[in-house]
Specification:
heterodimer, A: about 110 residues, mainly beta, six-stranded mixed sheet, four-stranded antiparallel sheet, about 0% helix, globular, B: about 110 residues, seven-stranded mixed sheet, 11 strands
Chain lengths: ~110, ~110
């Protein structure tokens, strides 16, 4: 069965510090992987996606993620966090020809001055 | 930039009442989706819709739910007889094809009292 695990429910970082949000997935087929961000009261905004090719993908707002097939992981990183990055981050997995996305439970990021 | 829109942003209804949540997907998109997020929980897939019919649905999408594309632009989710546990944020999404990223609307917060 497909599943996505985000082991960190809540992370607090200082502004300017680096960030890594973890995501592990379980999927029988070749996965399509996504990171979405949700600001309070807002919808889901796509940060980046991995379909194939280069395993290090760049997204918007300075985020990047690396697909590691051997570890079934797709961790999200940012070298220097800004206060505006405070939000909920969701990892999701889908597959070619599939209709639905499976989401993780999310990681809430707090940024302190 | 085109975006998915949803109305209303917040709907309050009494248990047993029918509600219709409305979405306008991005105009050249062909696949449409509904997801829900119960407060504090993960985003869950409800249903996907293509070529005027349901292409996939989850076990959450039981007989009290229905979807429709009444015209060339709107995509609706109807809940026939709402229950307290239907209280959630409902997200509409669309994409150009099954293997492409889904674009999400801002959501409709449904509160059933």
């Amino acid at each position: 069965a497909q599943s996505v695990t985000q082991p960190d429910i809540h992370i607090t970082v200082s502004e300017g510090a680096s960030l890594e949000l973890r995501c592990n997935y379980s999927y029988g087929a070749t996965p399509y992987l996504f990171w979405y961000v949700q600001s309070p009261g807002q919808g889901l905004q796509l940060l980046l996606k991995y379909f194939s090719g280069d395993t290090l993908v760049q997204g918007i707002k300075g985020f990047e993620a690396e697909f590691k097939r051997s570890q079934s992981s797709f961790n999200l990183r940012k070298p220097s966090v800004h206060w505006s990055d405070a939000a909920e981050y969701f990892c999701a997995v889908g597959a070619a020809g599939a209709n639905n996305l499976f989401f993780g439970t999310g990681t809430r990021l707090t940024v302190i001055p | 930039e085109p975006e998915v829109t949803q109305t209303p942003s917040h709907q309050v209804t009494q248990m047993g009442q029918e509600v219709i949540l409305r979405c306008v997907p991005i105009s050249n998109h062909l696949y449409f989706y509904w997801y829900r997020q119960i407060l504090g929980q993960k985003v869950e897939f409800l249903v996907s819709f293509y070529n005027n019919e349901i292409s996939e649905k989850s076990e959450i999408f039981d007989d009290q739910f229905s979807v429709e594309r009444p015209d060339g632009s709107n995509f609706t989710l109807k809940i026939r007889s709402t229950k307290l546990e239907d209280s959630a944020m409902y997200f509409c999404a669309s994409n150009v094809g099954q293997s492409y990223e889904q674009y999400f609307g801002p959501g409709t917060r449904l509160t059933v009292t």
